[in-house]
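Mods, move this if it's the wrong board.
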Amino acid sequence: MKPDSSSSSLLRPRLRSRQDHSSFSQDWSPFSRQRLSALSSQEDYRSEESEEFGPVFIQEPDDAIFALDSEDKKVMMSCEARGNPAPTYSWLINGTDVDVEADFRYSLIDGNLIINNASEAIDFGKYQCRAENSIGAVLSREALLQFAYLGVFSTRARGGVSVREGQGVVLICTPPPHSPEIIYSWVFNEFPSFVAEDSRRFISQETGNLYISKVQPSDVGSYICLVKNTVTNARVLSPPTPLTLKTDGEKARSEACTHSNVQMPLSSFFSFSPVPTITWRKINGNIPKKARLRKSQAVLEIPNIQLEDSGSYECKAENSRGGTAFRGHLQVYTMPQWISMINDSQLDSGEQLQWECRATGKPRPTYRWLRNGEVEMLNGELIIHRVQQADSGMYQCVAENKYGAIYSSAELKILASAPMFNTNTVTIIATMGKDISLECRPRASPKPRITWKKGERRVQANRRIMLLRNNTLRIVNSSRADEGSYVCRAENQFGSAEMTTTLLVKEAMKVELSPKRVEVTVGESVVLSCKATHDPSLDVNFLWLLNNQPLNAQQDGGHFEYIRTQSSTADLMIRSILLKHAGKYGCRVQTSADTVLAEAELLVRGPPGPPGVVIVEEITDTTATLSWSHGVDNHSPITTYNLQARSPFSLGWQTVKTDPEPVTGDMESAMAVELNPWVEYEFRVVATNSIGTGDPSTPSRAVRTKEAVPSVAPANVSGGNGRRHELVISWEPVSEEFQNGEGFGYIVAFRANGTRGWKEKMVTSADSTTYKYRDETFPPLTPFEVKVGVYNNKGDGPFSKVVTVSGRLSLPHSPSLISVPQSLSPSASLSESNSERPMLFISPQVSYWKDMEQEESGKKKRTVGNETVILLSGLDGNTAYLITVKGFNSIGQGPPSASVRATTKKNRDQPPSNVMWIQEGNNVSLSWDPVKAMENESDVIGYKVLLRQEGRGHSQVMRTPNSAAVLVLPEGGTYIIEVRAVSEGGEGAASSQIRVLTSSVTEVSVLTFSIRKDFFLNFNKSLHFLPNAYLYILIN
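Not the wrong board. Structure tokens:
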């Protein structure tokens, strides 16, 4: 086989792919060919266990590092592949076969290579696994086996380093032999006192050297370099290096200066004094956002390095004495990555194979082609012009550069089989005048030669009979003469096969659907009848459609019913027709010979649809000009339109008067009249036809009518009941709907009977309901004529009718207390009596104070209206009080009643006891012993359960008359619960606090009990819980 890199057309690979998700198709279907997605080839393509296929790696070996000081001296390199037959395995080290039989140190377990007593001198290198079966062989990727070790430092004593104070110094580490990387640190004087890196000290993880800037007396001492292997974690220490300060007259000496090959690029900045400020920049670009500065900005670290991070970087160090800069170029290299890979292919003998693989990488990768593990050619493209059976096997494209290699594998299968048909006999029934296609699609490789015969005679092509390129025999405008048996014969060098097709030609079927067009009204019913005329030897099936979609009678609420009256007739009944039932109905009739569709149109008359968008064209204080567009009339002309409006003051939508009246169906605009000024309205339009009224349009945007002078006067004007020499005038306020604009208020006019001039007063609040006028000159009960008008920013409106109102009055008599218990709770009810109460006696006032205090220090409370009972709350328990009552009317207050002495009962001191609780999830059930009243205590009337979240002051309160309660707590938090008894005397002392924790994790149920000590011995141990439940028992 010779490689060819010519640019001939690329053959479409077939069958399965081992790397990507591409799929391909072809016109010819050779024996056992399939189209499969790429990665599914390891599962879907292997669905038939009997099918043979080449090796496919499931697991390839990975790079490994083996510690030489490991107690287990075995190294295992893993490899596993699938294939049918099952593959066998062999290994290569540095391209040379590993002889497992000859070297006892090697052994194979399945595909895994075991190396006993591994040695760096013999076993270091690159390993590859070869998987092979009868189809072919493939090589795995290369895996590097390294060995980890750490030597010891030279025992030779190290010379001291002397430096002048304030100068910089470098201490050399000189690490021992090691593999792989090591971590450097320094010990100061004694272990484990480590040197901490800061703005003066820097440890290079490249050389291990310690840099100290601006040496201080505290730096004097002994320094030891410590190195740690990153794999074995082994650590070794260097001999100590003394650091001393140079005295006057002594020449500075440093072991670092004796090493001429030591490089100190960035780290040398630490030798500057004063300590410099360090900055970084990228030449011709920006430093990557992911980069970070470490060790006083002396180290620029770029994680997850990428190609775009390449470039020149500059580090600049500056102090008060000057500055310097160092520039370096970062070049990023990558191992190859696939752009396109090869896929498994099946080809007929003699076809052309063209495979191409492409990869990216830096440096640019080179390519190798392997066939069954052996190098076939060096190129990025593989072409075989005429494949033969000998070309079958496993192929691999290898893309590699100095940083690694990647492998793409595929199987090439060359097919060879005699023709075969899925079935040897076929019957086709057609109708006269139709075109007929007789297919011939054998499976064969290579492609067979096809011939057609009718009876004993070979079929010759003519104007009506054609042999297509895909070997299909096509007969145009068929007739009875075309009936008969047609034989397709397929033949290649491996054999032949035949398939017989029997052709029957029948009369064409006719279908009639009646009525063709029908109009009905909503709510009526109709029957569509479908009749087929066909060859009696053929069975027929009916399918009803609505607007080209199959009709499902069961899903439309009983409106449709199928009726089959005869074998060749089917009816469709539509009951209680709705607008949505309008459309094109189809009756599709099918036989084994042909399918015919007949259609009919159903028009449904109904109320109109909603009109189009309503637009407010013009607005005044009482009118709005509206326009809209016609909606669908549903096959019945629109006769009238109804305009409706809605405002914040209306109960829903209300019909408004219009100009003109009525609005006829041919109009698209009208004026709404008699609207209220300065009111925000929305408008909509409703259409009506002879069938009924349709749905309304969508509402218009909200608009406000313009302002106008008020037109509605206040109602129910009255007065009286004021203080002495005071006239009180009251009225019902005018609703905002009728205020007609901003700046609304009232004009109050009044005059004494028998006088001519009116006094007018302005009340600027629109919500006002009273006005008080005081005049010492008029006597009580003087009658006045009163009227109230309205105004706004647009002007004055009308006045109400004139009414007569009288002034008032004299002071009330003293009331008397008739019911004060001698012992009352801190919230006590009192009653009073005044049999001689004068007219308009309102709001008596109760005064109360402690027996040992002055009346002036007491409190006062008014009753509501003419009530003669009042509740005094907030009193102290077990305390004597004195109580009096004064009467009030519009003139003023009367004298107080005689004082009465009463003593409150004692407050509750005893808290609820034996509080028990059960928590299940976020539900907490509480119970406690009932609290009994002691002597001179108010009876308990209920309990308060207080709940608050820990850390917050606000509490939620639940009241209950019983000695039990159930709380539902929010998820996720800690809650405090306590219980207090409540009586007429107030709240008692709180119970001991209960602390409850709720969780937001719904998968775990927590059930918690609180149990009294006296109950513990009788506790039932037979408790059953759901999975993931916990039980907490607290003993009080």
